[in-house]
UniProtKB/TrEMBL annotation:
Entry keywords, A to Z: Transcription, Transcription regulation
Protein name: AraC family transcriptional regulator
Species of provenance: Streptomyces alfalfae
Origin: domain of life: Bacteria
Gene3D superfamilies linked to this entry: 3.40.50.880, Homeodomain-like
Classification of source organism: Bacteria, Bacillati, Actinomycetota, Actinomycetes, Kitasatosporales
């Protein structure tokens, strides 16, 4: 198996977890794949090869100066406070050398550096939620999606803040070396195998605005605490002592979401937590979340997360390799699924 080089760019003010999270994933995967040698050769480099100080005060020792570093398979640009002031020399290096990498990855505000180098033009990307508006404003050629924890667009992958870099790194390992290797690394790091990339950065309660008027705030709380109840506009309007039309208009004006969309998001989020944290069956979860039937919940998951409830659960409660039943032998003809 060909060894893949992962080069992580370092600079003063870098967020240490943006560096160490993916490094631990790739290093662990390199040892876990069971080949003759490590599957990944992970290296770090600063522009001048000198020590860098992270935003938390830790000092990192790079392996190379960037001009002397080998052309990597995967070039990873982390984020942090160091991305706020412009760094023309680093941007110039990225502009020249970034296209040479087979895979270009950013964590958190590292996407801003890629955009400054013109490497995200015409692409869909994400970054830390607090900087999505800035990325979109400063780089109109980038299609910024503020919701997912990571985004893949061709050979370029961008992720949201801090721990999302671990999710993205696990996804890349799964793509390179298979699910079992990614699962082994996730278990070692005591993290989920990986959250789906289109999972929202925020819970619905955080992403939606809090209503100003107390009756509407009470309705928001009621929805959160009683996802299995009748949450139709008529029922919710009655709780707020408003007419259905007045309630729907006021709720959207004060929260930024229609009552129906808010309810949909709360139910999906509640179902996710039950699938992650309990052993309840899909049918039981669907009833507890107000869907009524597993098929209704399945449609909601596919629309919101791009995956079915059963597959979502497998990412959090995978069958150990030794216990997995042997797949029946069969011959299939299929197109590539990705």
């Amino acid at each position: 198996m060909e060894q893949r080089t992962v080069l992580v760019v370092l600079f003063d003010g870098v967020q240490s977890l943006d560096v160490t999270g993916p490094v631990e994933v790739f290093t662990g995967a390199g040892l876990a794949h069971g080949g003759d040698g490590p599957a990944y050769l992970v290296r770090t480099a600063s522009l001048d090869g000198e020590l860098v100080r992270t935003s938390s005060g830790l000092t990192l020792v790079p392996d190379h100066a960037l001009p002397d570093a080998p052309v990597p398979h995967t070039l990873l640009v982390p984020g942090g406070m160091g991305t706020r002031p412009e760094d023309p020399a680093l941007i110039d290096w990225l502009r020249e050398h970034g296209p040479r990498a087979e895979r270009l990855v950013s964590v958190c505000t590292g996407a801003i550096r890629l955009a400054q180098a013109g490497l995200l033009d015409g692409r869909r990307a994400t970054t830390h939620w607090a900087y999505c508006a800035k990325l979109a404003r400063d780089h109109p050629g980038v299609e910024v999606d503020p919701d997912p924890i990571y985004v893949r667009d061709g050979h370029v992958a961008t992720s949201a803040g801090v721990t999302a870099g671990i999710d993205l790194a696990l996804a890349l390992v799964e793509e390179d070396l298979g699910r079992e290797v990614a699962l082994t690394v996730a278990r070692h790091l005591v993290v989920f195998l990986r959250r789906p990339g289109n999972q929202a950065q925020f819970s619905v309660q955080l992403s939606a605005q809090t209503a100003r008027r107390e009756p509407l705030r009470e309705v928001q709380q009621w929805i959160t605490e009683h996802p299995d109840e009748d949450l139709s506009v008529d029922a919710l309007a009655a709780r707020a002592s408003l007419s259905p039309r007045h309630f729907a208009r006021a709720f959207q004006a004060e929260t930024g979401l229609t009552p129906g969309k808010y309810v949909d998001r709360v139910r999906v989020e509640h179902a996710r937590r039950l699938l992650e944290d309990t052993s309840d069956g899909v049918e039981e979860v669907s009833r507890a979340c107000g869907y009524g039937t597993p098929e209704a919940m399945r449609r909601a998951f596919l629309k919101a997360l791009g995956t079915a409830p059963a597959e979502y659960r497998r990412r959090f409660h995978p069958v150990p390799p030794a216990a997995a039943p042997a797949a029946p032998t069969r011959t299939i003809t299929a197109h590539a699924d990705r």
